[in-house]
Amino acid sequence: xxxxxxxxxxxxxxxxxxxxxxxxxxxxxxxxxxxxxxxxxxxxxxxxxxxxxxxxxxxxxxxxxxxxxxxxxxxxxxxxxxxxxxxxxxxxxxxxxxxxxxxxxxxxxxxxxxxxxxxxxxxxxxxxxxxxxxxxxxxxxxxxxxxxxxxxxxxxxxxxxxxxxxxxxxxxxxxxxxxxxxxxxxxxxxxxxxxxxxxxxxxxxxxxxxxxxxxxxxxxxxxxxxxxxxxxxxxxxxxxxxxxxxxxxxxxxxxxxxxxxxxxxxxxxxxxxxxxxxxxxxxxxxxxxxxxxxxxxxxxxxxxxxxxxxxxxxxxxxxxxxxxxxxxxxxxxxxxxxxxxxxxxxxxxxxxxxxxxxxxxxxxxxxxxxxxxxxxxxxxxxxxxxxxxxxxxxxxxxxxxxxxxxxxxxxxxxx
Length: 415
Known about the structure:
Layout: H1 28-34, E1 38-42, E2 48-52, H2 55-62, E3 67-68, H3 86-94, H4 108-118, H5 124-129, H6 131-148, E4 152-153, H7 154-159, H8 161-170, H9 178-189, H10 195-218, H11 224-235, H12 240-253, H13 256-271, H14 273-281, H15 286-297, E5 304-308, E6 312-314, E7 317-319, E8 324-327, H16 329-332, H17 367-384, E9 389-390, E10 412-414
Parallel strand pairs: 2-8
Antiparallel strand pairs: 1-2, 3-5, 4-10, 5-8, 6-7, 9-10
Helix pairs in contact: 6-8, 6-17, 9-10, 10-12, 13-15, 13-17, 15-17
Keywords: Heme, Iron, Metal-binding, Monooxygenase, Oxidoreductase
Function: Involved in the coupling of aromatic side chains of the heptapeptide of vancomycin.
GO molecular function, one term: monooxygenase activity
């Protein structure tokens, strides 16, 4: 068993790693997944971290009970420096039970209890029942985009509004509040904004959701949040502030990843016209196309950030207790031992074994909803706009380099 306890952080490779091609994972991932599946790197904060890169070991570490997803653990591998004033720290402490990062950033029985409240709302059956409304939302947004005319900017005109409207409708957010939430949640996940802006957006979202949850507690309607509130009364899992945190988590996670996948998936299909032609000729390929696009882009890279609570041996390497660990979805999903010629986009590939939604107990709760939204989006977008094209070189677009959710800031299109 090897270890690297005495490695100088200055000698370690930097993480996140740069992408040579914006549509591919970093080139270093290929060597990591096959030659160094457990290795060390250094975060922008200067803190060392363990990287897990092979498909097999990513699955193993994400199911290991000796790692924690607690973001408030001193060893947790935050990618960005957490610089706060004393006032901001006091405000965060005051709202700590409702901080979005704590909604599911817990472990063991506590995490299982929270999932029991939420998972029944995102089963395959419940999600499929919502398909007609998702189709209506996609068509409505496309109607608005086409009415405004060509050219357009795909992220703001389509990729963001679709999942935002879907999750707001599922959570029964009042129509008058939906743009308010979209504006602030966009700020919260945009790493180009300041710490102060993100903190204020977080406070605004929690305050608005506080009122929404109080209304549900007074009169639980037969909707997602109302049923979660009623279920919580029966199970006694969370207090009011924690329910607010769960609602905020669902609101943000319900649109951010999907919006970025809509944009990146559109780029991927337009850059691979043969694959796009297969999809348009055979709409039945939509499901496998979505899984292949999820595998190919792995926008949720890392698949999971954790901290070791005990010494762990993984792939013949010892990870000491207290060290941060990052599971690389982008490397695992391009592991040639699992996916033949992973650099090739092939919508007929059987890619369901990808780890784009994570793995284990912390696997994405909304994976069925995300898959369905993407199926409807890609099945509708290119049918209605067969002449859709990107009006700038793909390499010249602004990508979300270093963000927890990879994507693109703007996609100028015409048709």
